[in-house]
UniProtKB/TrEMBL annotation:
It comes from the Bacteria. Residues 258-547 form the Sucrose synthase first GT-B domain. Residues 561-720 form the Glycosyl transferase family domain. This is Sucrose synthase. It holds the Pfam family Glycos_transf_1. GO terms for biological process: sucrose metabolic process. Keywords: Glycosyltransferase, Transferase. The lineage of its organism: Bacteria, Pseudomonadati, Thermodesulfobacteriota, Desulfobulbia, Desulfobulbales. One of its GO terms (molecular function) is sucrose synthase activity. It comes from Desulfurivibrio alkaliphilus. Residues 146-235 form the Sucrose synthase EPBD domain. Its EC number is 2.4.1.13. It catalyses: an NDP-alpha-D-glucose + D-fructose = a ribonucleoside 5'-diphosphate + sucrose + H(+).
Length: 796
């Protein structure tokens, strides 16, 4: 297929656009990314003011994600809309844009970036598109992330157009349903098929509508049992009536809203397993350790909230069942003062939530005693999955109802357990490393010694294609924005030269993707003005720590401690960019005059860090504090704060009219932003990643560009300047941040949606997807055994 530039820009602009494109100097490596292309075009326009505004060329180049310099042509990756790219070749001879296939593009790119490869190199090509012929597909990229809505529409349409087949599936799904070994909903001996179900429903509804003992639930269920209906329809006469009417409507005239609401009422979930193997997973003395941060907080808070929601969900179905949740992580014998050596640990403030730890084992089955980086745990996960299944069955007395994976390693283990145990699987990526490290695919061999991306990227592909449904915290995590590619989108096609060419790695238009943002514990992160909920002793303790304590873990003595504080909390690594914030602060004289900077970050002694990247950032931080003479304006707290202490820290900063700043170069979501907002603290957060969907810019907070330090600190100075002129300015942003957090980002809302997804996708899995995915499952199994296990084994 051939296009030409005239299809994208006005004819009078074509000479200028060609001159710019063909005049670009090939860099090393021979490719330019979007930002570099736009910067180069901006420079071109400044050098040629006579060219005019070139609006069409700007529009074309803003959609150009990459330009690859081949010997006799330019290869242009044109992202005409999110999750959709076209690949063109432009030659110097004419204006034609010749379409390239993805495989041809990847082969060419591989050769250009790795000219040292053998001339006869035939790299493995991975194409998963042929395996996605079994289910519905979305058309509009703007609907990606709303999978449950699309799937409900698809299934209700099938119930209407193919009633015999789909009514039978629904009947079988209900008939087979049980919890804790107890049959629920339908007695198959009395209700033998979907036709008999409709007849029995009619008799049951007739009885319920004229029932003369509406408050005697045992007697009602005793009568319903004669029609073939068992427990699980509701905890009151009105609830049972509503649920049965929903089923009757679905069988007679299905629609998507009724189908979703009915499935959401089925008591399907009482035992849940959450998988999070890496790091130091515990409740105390772990945050801030290597590989241990927001994910631990997320999983613990999710587990607590899920237990509460499931208890209510089961009760509303009329069942007396206590939910049980297991968090599966790694047991580390050399615990370093944590509880990581304990096999079973009850989660505080819960009735039946447990951390179950399973050790890593060497091939000779000896236990691995020490912590291992998340980038090097791959050879242990296969046996870990086998051992975890045995422990799960022992603790639960059987199978769970839902398995949730977290991060790449947890998602792989969830995939193995789901396959072995026959349980629905949900994936949560948290952060896909491929998007965090520039050129991590192209130069995988240079990253390999430290990061082993050749293994992790394949793990991601296997897990995301096997998952029944995937949760992301934001839409852009999946499909990015108009200006940037999403984390999942980056797996559509890519090359790891000399190793693998991924022609089609993930189908973003499959309805498995759903956006469900997390919340925070509102018992811990609550507004600063709830004074009675704030113990005086803790207020003093944390206040002293932030502003005055002098010991080996606290650096800096504030010369003017009454100035409003800029507060930040994160682990010291390159992506979190705390050193970038400190350097920007050091260069901005106005900001230094208006506010102090307080950071809670890792440790102050690089020798105490076991992580090379963290230690390097610690040393860099010391250098910046000396270079800009900041010891009288910056406090560095090198201690691990517990969650309650962190919550009080946000509130103390709010008491003093301060702000929270999250300056990461990229942030997949940003739990600390939510924590600050729930505390009533005005927030400033990176514009790259999840904060775009948390913060309403200049209403409930501010988005900042950490790659432009001067504009970032200018924004902070401007805010403090307005606050000095009018105290209501701070109050307004505090109030709107709190309103935004409480209305959109809470754990009860998250758990309601997660449970609903489990039930809807459970029916989809039972009715068609699991059987239809057989070929994809078999192909993924080959990749697991022939690729993953072979490469992972080399790390031992």
């Amino acid at each position: 297929m051939v296009d030409d530039l005239n299809s994208f820009v006005e004819e009078q602009e074509i000479p200028r656009l060609r001159e710019f494109l063909l005049g670009l100097e090939p860099p090393e490596p021979p490719l330019l990314l979007r930002n570099d292309i736009l910067m180069a075009f901006h420079a071109y326009c400044e050098q040629h003011p006579e060219a005019g505004d070139l609006a069409g060329s700007w529009r074309f180049l803003r959609k150009t994600q990459e330009i690859l310099f081949a010997a006799d042509m330019l290869i242009i990756i044109y992202r005409h809309r999110r999750a959709n790219c076209r690949i063109f070749a432009l030659s110097p001879e004419n204006d034609q844009l010749t379409a390239l296939s993805v495989l041809d593009f990847l082969t060419l790119k591989e050769r250009l970036l790795r000219p040292d490869l053998p001339l006869q190199q035939r790299t493995l090509a991975l194409d998963l598109v042929p395996f996605y012929d079994y289910g519905p597909g979305l058309k509009d990229p703007n609907t990606i992330g709303q999978g449950i809505k699309f799937l409900n529409r698809h299934m209700s349409g099938n119930l209407s157009s193919q009633p015999e087949k789909w009514n039978r599936s629904l009947y079988e799904f209900l008939k087979l349903h049980q919890l804790h070994g107890v049959q629920l909903l339908l007695n198959g001996a009395l209700v033998g098929n979907s036709g008999e179900l409709e007849a029995a429903l009619g008799r049951a509804l007739d009885f319920l509508e004229r029932c003369r003992y509406p408050d005697d639930l045992p007697r009602i269920y005793q009568r319903l049992a004669k029609f073939g209906f068992l427990e699980g329809w509701g905890d009151s006469l009105p609830r049972i009536l509503e649920t049965m009417h929903l089923l009757q409507d679905i069988l007679e005239q299905p629609d998507e809203a009724n189908l979703e609401e009915f499935l959401a009422r089925i008591p399907m979930v009482s035992k849940v397993v959450l998988i999070s193997p890496h790091g130091w997973f515990g409740q105390d003395n772990v945050l801030g350790r290597p590989d241990t941060g927001g994910q631990v907080v997320y999983v613990l808070d999710q587990a607590k909230a899920l237990e509460q929601f499931l208890a209510g969900d089961l009760k509303s179905a009329g069942l007396v069942i206590e939910p049980k949740i297991l968090i599966i992580t790694r047991l580390i014998p050399e615990d370093e003062g944590t509880t990581s050596d304990q096999r079973l640990e009850k989660v505080m403030d819960t009735a039946n939530v447990w951390i179950l730890r399973v050790p890593f084992r060497y091939p000779d089955h000896e236990v691995v005693p020490h912590w291992i980086s998340r980038f090097r745990i791959w050879p242990f996960l296969d046996q870990f999955s086998v051992d975890a299944e045995e422990e799960i069955r022992r603790e639960l007395g059987g199978r769970p109802d839902l398995i949730v994976g977290n991060y790449s390693d947890g998602n792989l283990v969830a995939t193995r357990l789901s396959k072995s145990m026959g349980v629905i699987q949900c994936n949560i990526a948290h952060a896909l490393e491929k998007s965090k490290y520039l050129y991590s695919d192209l130069y995988w061999h240079q990253f390999e010694q430290e990061y082993n991306f050749s293994i992790q990227f394949m793990v991601d592909l296997i897990a995301m294609n096997q998952a029944n449904f995937i949760i992301s915290s934001t839409v852009q995590e999946i499909t990015g924005t108009d200006d940037s590619i999403g984390q999942y989108e980056s797996y559509q096609f890519f090359t790891m030269p000399g190793l693998i060419n991924v022609v089609s790695g993930i189908n973003l238009f499959h309805p498995r993707f759903n956006v469900i943002p997390p919340g925070v514990s509102q018992d811990i992160y609550f507004p600063y003005n709830r004074k009675r909920s704030r113990p005086a002793r803790m207020r003093k303790q944390i206040g002293d720590l932030l502003f005055s304590t002098e010991d080996g873990d606290c650096l800096g003595r504030l010369a003017q401690p009454d100035k409003p504080p800029i507060f930040t909390i994160a682990r010291l690594d390159r992506i979190k960019n705390l050193t970038g914030l400190v350097e920007a602060y050091g260069r901005d004289e106005e900001l230094r005059q208006r506010a102090n900077l307080i950071m809670v970050a890792s440790v102050v002694d690089p020798e105490r860090s076991k992580d090379a990247e963290e230690a390097a950032e610690i040393r860099k931080m010391h250098g910046l504090l000396e270079q800009y003479q900041l010891h009288g304006q910056v406090r560095w707290i090198g201690k691990f704060l517990g969650k309650r202490e962190t919550g009080e820290a946000y509130r103390i900063v709010a008491d003093r009219g301060g702000i929270f700043v999250q300056p990461a170069l990229f942030e997949a979501f940003g739990l600390t932003i939510l924590e600050a907002m729930h505390s009533g603290l005005p927030v400033f957060a990176t514009q790259f990643g999840g904060p775009l969907e948390i913060i309403e810019h200049e209403r409930s907070g501010f988005l900042i560009n950490p790659t432009d330090p001067a504009s970032m600190t200018a924004r902070l100075s401007e805010f403090f300047r307005h606050c000095a002129e009018d105290s209501r300015h701070w109050q307004g942003f505090s109030r709107r941040a709190l309103e935004r957090a409480q209305s959109r980002f809470t754990w009860p809302l998250h758990c309601q949606k997660l449970t609903r997804l489990t039930k809807v996708y459970g029916f989809w899995r039972y009715s068609i997807s699991q059987q239809a995915k057989t070929r994809l499952n078999q192909y993924s199994e080959l990749l697991y055994h022939l690729y993953f296990k072979e490469r992972a084994g080399r790390l031992l």
